[in-house]
Every structure is written in C-alpha cells, then in structure tokens.
Amino acid sequence: MRRRIFRNMCTLALAAILLSSTLVLVVLYPLFNSQMQKEMQIEAAYITAGLNQAVNKNAFLKTTEIQNSTIRITLVAKDGIVLFDNMAPAEKMDNHLSRPEIAEAFATGTAQSVRLSATLDSQTFYYAVRLDDGTVVRLANTTGSVFSAFIGILPLIILIAITVFGLALPLAKKMTNKIITPINTLNLENPADNSVYEELLPLLYRIRTQNQQIKHQMDVLQAQQEDFAALTSHMSEGLILLDTKANVLTVNQSAIYLLGAEKISYRGKNILTLSRNLILHRAAETALSGRHCVDLLLIKNRTCQLFASPVYENTTVKGAILLILDVTEQQKAEKIRREFSANVSHELKTPLTSISGYAELIKNNMAKAEDISTFAERIYLEADRLVALVDDIIQLSGLDEKNIQLPPEKINLLELTNLIALRLLPQAKEKNVSINVAGDSIHIFAVKQMMDELISNLCENAIKYNKPNGKVKIDISQQNETAVLTVSDTGVGIPREHQDRVFERFYRVDKSHSKQTGGTGLGLSIVKHIAEYHKAAIKLESTENNGTKITVILPKNSEHPV
Ligand code: ADP
Predict the structure, then answer these.
(1) Which secondary structure element, helix H or strand E, spans residue 554, and what is its range?
(2) Fold topology of 240-326
(3) How far, in Å, is the centroid of ligand 1 from the Cα of 506?
(4) CB 164 within 8 A of CB 106
(5) Which atom of ligand 1 is nearest to the CA of 525?
(6) What is the DSSP letter of 191?
(7) pTM
(8) Of 283, 324, 331, 396, which has the fewest beta carbons less than 10 angstroms from its beta carbon?
(9) Domain boundaries, the chain
(10) Ligand 1 proximity of 492 Cβ (cutoff 6 Å)
(11) CATH of domain 406-555
C-alpha cells in the first residue's frame, strides 16, 4: 500500500512537472516570440520613418542608437548588395537578394521570416521594410529556440523531480500510517468503541453486523455440536464420522474404547491414528468409494460388528459413517446356546434310547419274566434322570432368559442350610457321609427358591463325589458386608485342569461316574447363574483325592439382588 501511494504520488508529481513544462514551452514561449516580433515591427517603423526623412542616410545609420542597438539592422540595395550593417562590415557581406524576407520586401513592401540556426539552439526573426528610395532595411533579432529553452529549464525540471521524489517517500509513509494505523488497531470485537476517520465508519458498521451474524451462527453451531456430542457420548455403539480424506470428524468414547485407542482428541487426524486395524481401514475406504459394507472386527478378545456407509450430498460422497457394535457377549451366548442345544439333544437321547430299548424288549415279549422287574427298574431310573435333566434345563433356560418370577426376600441363611442338610440326610447316609452345618445366623436378601437350589446343588455334589465315611461341612460366616457360604468335602476332588471348566454346561470330570451318581452335568452351571443373579462371587479350591471347597460370597445388604 505504502509503495502504491508513493508510486501514485511520484506519477502525479511527474505529470505536474511535464504539464507545467509543456505550458511554458507551448504557450508562454510563442507569446514571448510574438511580443518580440511586435516590438521589432515598432522599432522597424521608427527606423523606416527616420531613414525616409533623413537627408543623409549614412549619418542617420551612424548614430549611436543604431550602432549600439541589440537588434541587427541591415540596409540592402535594390541589387541585393549590403549597404550597411551595424554588426558586421557591409563590404564583407554577401548578396542578400536571395534572403526570402528581402526578396519579398522588394516585391510587397514588408516581409518577415524566421530561421533556425544550424545547431538548432537559436532562431532569428527577420523583419524587412522597403524604403521610399527602393532600398530595404531589415531588422533581425536572435533568441533561443524552443529546444534550447527546453534544455535551459531541464536542470530545473530534474531538480524539482528529485525534490518531489525525495519528499514523496516520507509523505507516502506518513499518509499510509495515517490510513493504516487506525485499521490495524481496530477493536474488531467491539467496532463501536473505535474512534476512527469517518471513511472507516461504513466498514466498522459492516464488521459489527457480521460479528452479530457470526455470533448467532456460532451459538447455533455450538448448540448443535453439544447436542450431537451428548447423544453420541451416551451411545454404547462406537461411532466414527470421516471426511472424504478419511480424516476423523467425530469419534465417540465407545469407539475409542472398542478400538482400544488412546483417549486423546482425533479430530482432523487420519483414521490410521485412531486404529491401524486393516479391516476398519478397508471398510472406511469402501464407504468412501460409495459402497456400504459390513464386517467383523476382532480387537483384543472382543468381537465387534462393523457397519460402514458412505455419506452422500446429492450424488457425491462427502464422507463416511462407521458404526461399531460390541457383539462379544452375543456371540458367546450364541455359541453357548448352540452347544447347549447340541448337548441337550445328546443328553436326552441317551436315556430315551435306553428306555425305548427296554420297553421294546418287554413289548415284543423278548424279556424273560425274571428280567422284567430289572428292566422296569432301569426304565424308571432313566425316566427319573430324564425328569431331573428336563427340570435342570427348564431352570437354566429361565435363568438365561432372566425370566425370574419370584421376588427376593429376607432369608436366614443358617436356617435354610440346616433345612437342606436335613433333606439330604438320607442321601448322605446312603453314601455313609456325615453333614455338618456351622456358623452364624446371617440374613441375606435373595430369592429363596434359588438360594435353596444353589446350596442343595453344592451339598449334593459334596455328598455325591465324596468317599465312604467322608465328611461334608457347611459353614456360614459374615465378612465385612458379605455373607460367606462354604461347602467343603473330603471327596475325590477336582483335578487342576478341570477346575476352570466344571461350571460349564454338561461338563463332567468323569462322565461315567457322574452318570452313575445321577448327575446331569448342569448343577454347577445353575449354581453359577444363581450366584451371578444375586451378584455373588464363587471360589473353587480343590485337591485331587483330598476334597473340594466351594465358597460363595453374597452381598448381604443389597436390597434387591438383581
Ligand atoms: P453333575 O450333575 O455331573 O454333578 P455338576 O455341574 O454339578 O454336574 O458338576 C460338574 C462336574 O464337576 C461333576 O460331574 C463332577 O465331576 C465335578 N464336581 C462337582 N462338584 C464336585 C465335588 N464336590 N467334588 C468333586 N467333583 C465335583
């Protein structure tokens, strides 16, 4: 800006100089010339009158006025011979008949002409008048030419130009500062607070209007962004929005968690900084190329379903939206359900096959009369096993569906355990196993039927997998805010490698032994589910051939177990 002002000032000054020079040369110089010509004509009139009236022309011409005149005066005879010249000896001058003004004056009476010098630096004005005696007197005056006049004023022009240029720089600087400084120091937040020159007022007015519009738009945008952030941050699904270059526009906390990424801001960064997962990257690329895609992501023992879709504006892809759903539990549950169905079919088929086999033998009269009661006994036992199995399956399905109709209630754990021990006494006696219940009278809040099932299953196992003359000990105690139930036995124990799996459905350490004892393989699964339902923890300690201790830690004060 400063340079432009400086340039403009210099151009203006140069134009002014040129214009004034032209004025001098074109207007004033011709004016000066015509003035000079007029003076010459007047002078010529005097001299002509003097010569016409002079008795002795030579005496007139020798007067000092003529001799010292700055105007050259020449007297030329009819034949062109110079009779007199006040600035040069007449006899040495050549014939003047060829001079145009002389020739014309001889012809017409008066004549004038202008001639430039050979060097063009001067010009001479001639004025010739014919005298009464036929001779011609000529006056000549030499002045500088236009060219020499221009050369004459050129140093002055240059001096003025240098002065102007010299002054233009600081002046341009000063002017620029005067224009720019108020603009640079404008308070754009509050335009009304500025005191500036009046030409800036429309600008300030526009800035104020735009500030108001921007503020309004920012408020609207911020409100929208807050709504969006609130919505997405509470989503359990991971959400990622990408622009056309796969840079992150939005990523919610769930996505960061599910991808196992660092908790930092990813806005504006490429999706690769969020996760280097190849499947995720490919899905983003597919969506950005305008195609929808669904895939499975396996990240740190978690299985996630990934949906990637392009975001269109008219017909162009403007970005992509990625949705990540954690389906780990779902997949696990599905796997368990699949295995469960397969196991259920198998478990039901075995007793049914044997029932149908025995029944067929009896029906076809193929059984001996003495075997019929044994076969009937087998059918009865297998049917009993089937009933137990179906009962357990129904119970597990109910627990799976969380379809518990019964309400929780206040239970005296010691009382309930004593009742169960009493109920299992015949079973224990049959195996020659003693049952001992000890501990404090502790109350818990739980579903009584489910707690009965849990304790019964643990005690039944402790009896079933015991040795002859073995012991079952049930202890109830309070630790901090929990009720601790321990069922320990002196039985066969569970080998180390099986300990983690005995809570799985239909898992048995020794399948044949379990069948002998009438186990369904679902008892501990039911225990685990009931414990989970009551937010209780289970601990299993066992040594092979030495015994097993299962501890259930129940939250005591929980008003509602679920
Ligand atoms: P089951 O109906 O076969 O008893 P459970 O689910 O109750 O099924 O138990 C699973 C398996 O864990 C049993 O088959 C048995 O091998 C083992 N088990 C459970 N409790 C005990 C225990 N107290 N002592 C030794 N083994 C046990």
Answers:
(1) strand 547-555
(2) Beta-Lactamase (3.30.450)
(3) 10
(4) no
(5) 6
(6) G
(7) 0.54
(8) 331
(9) 2-150, 190-234, 240-326, 336-399, 406-555
(10) yes
(11) 3.30.565.10
